[in-house]
Amino acid sequence: MFRKLFNKEEDKTQDELRLEQSLQKTRSSLFGRIGSLFQENEITDELWDELEESLIMADVGVETTTELVAQTRERVEDEGIKSTRDAYTVLKQEMVRLLKAEEPLRIEEQRILTVVLVVGVNGSGKTTTIGKLAHRYKNRGKKVVLAAGDTFRAAAIEQLQVWGERAGVEVIAQAPGSDPAAVLFDAMRASQESRHADILIADTAGRLQNKVNLMQELEKMRRVAGRQVHRAPHEILLVLDASTGQNAILQAKGFKETAGVTGIVLTKLDGTSKGGAVLSIKKQLGVPVRFIGTGEKLEDLAEFDPVAFVEGLLGD
Question: Which of 48, 75, 99 is the last residue in one of the domains?
Fold first, then answer.
C-alpha cells in the first residue's frame, strides 16, 4: 500500500516535485514539529498526546485528528511496534490510507466526449484551474474545448477566454446572462460535430449566496449533459482555496449537496501553511482530492498522489 519513500530528487516526477515544493510552508511550520516527536526513544502516552495536539494545530481538524491518532496507536500496539521510527511509518501509512481515492480519475477514459463541470466560489481560482486543466490535457495530445458556463458575470466569460488563449484552446461562449445549460448544450454539440474534441471543460456559476437557484442551475446543466452524452458529466470538480483551511470544508459541503461533486482541486497550496486541511476534507466529505494548484503558471497543476503528499507534508 505504501511504496518506498522518495530518496533521490531525480526519481521524482514533475508532479511530485511541484507537490513537494507547494507544501514547503505547511511542512516548515506546524508539520515540521511532528517528525521531531518521533525522534524520541520510547513510545509513550505523551507522544500520542503531543501528536494529537500538533495535528489539530496544523489544521487537520479535531474529528480527523482523533481518528488518525487512534488508528495509528491501535496498529502500533497490535503489531507490537517498539521503535518510534516504525511508529512514524505507520502514521504515514494511515494518512495515505485516509487520502487514497477509491475510484480512478475518469477524464482520460476512452469515450466519444468527456465532459467535466468545474464548480467553486468566485475567488477560489476556478477559472485559472480550468486553464491549467486545458493546458495539461492538450499537452497529453487531447483536443480540449472550454465552455463559459458562468454567464452571471461578464468578467468570468472574459477571464475564461484569456485563459483559453493562454492554453491554446477554443472557448465557446454566449452573451452575459445567457442560460448556462444552453451554453453547455451548444458547446457539447460543437465539440462533437465540428471541433471533434476529446474533452469539454465547462465553467459554472461561482456563487453560493442563493443555494436554491444555484442547485437548479447546476442540476439543469447535469441533465443537459446527460441527454447529450452517455453518463455525462463524467467528473464534477470542486475548486477550493487551500488558504481558507477548515472553512473550505463548509464550502465543500454546500457544493457537494448541490452539485454532486466527484473530486476536489485544491488551489493556492503554495501560499499557505494550512495543507493539513486536505486530510479533513477527504475524511468529512468522502470526496477525493484530484489535483493540487502549485503556482500561477499554466503548468502549475499536479495530479494528487497521496504518497507524494504525505512525503511532502512530513518529509523524512
Answer: 99
Q: What is the CATH number of the domain that holds 208?
A: 3.40.50.300
Instruction: Tell how far CA 194 is from the center of its chain.
Output: 32
- In angstroms, the CA 307 to CA 313 distance is 10
The verdict on 234 and 292 lying in the same domain is: yes
pLDDT digits (tens, 9 = 90+) for 119-143: 998 888 999 999 999 999 999 999 9
> Are residue 143 and residue 276 in the same domain, yes or no?
yes
Residues 6+ apart with CB under 8 A from 219: 258
Q: Apex CA 312: angle with CA 310 and CA 313, to 5°?
A: 60
pTM, whole model, 2 decimals?
Answer: 0.91
200 and 262 within one domain:
yes
Task: Give the residue numbers spanning the domain of 89.
Answer: 9-99
- Decide: 177 and 205 in contact? Cβ < 8 Å: no
Q: How far is CA 48 from CA 55, 64, 84, 87, 313, in A?
A: 11, 14, 11, 11, 19
Task: Tell me the pLDDT tens digit for each residue of 137-161.
Answer: 999 999 999 999 999 889 999 999 9
75 and 180 co-located in one domain: no
Alpha-carbon torsion angle 293, 118, 116, 287, nearest 10 = 70
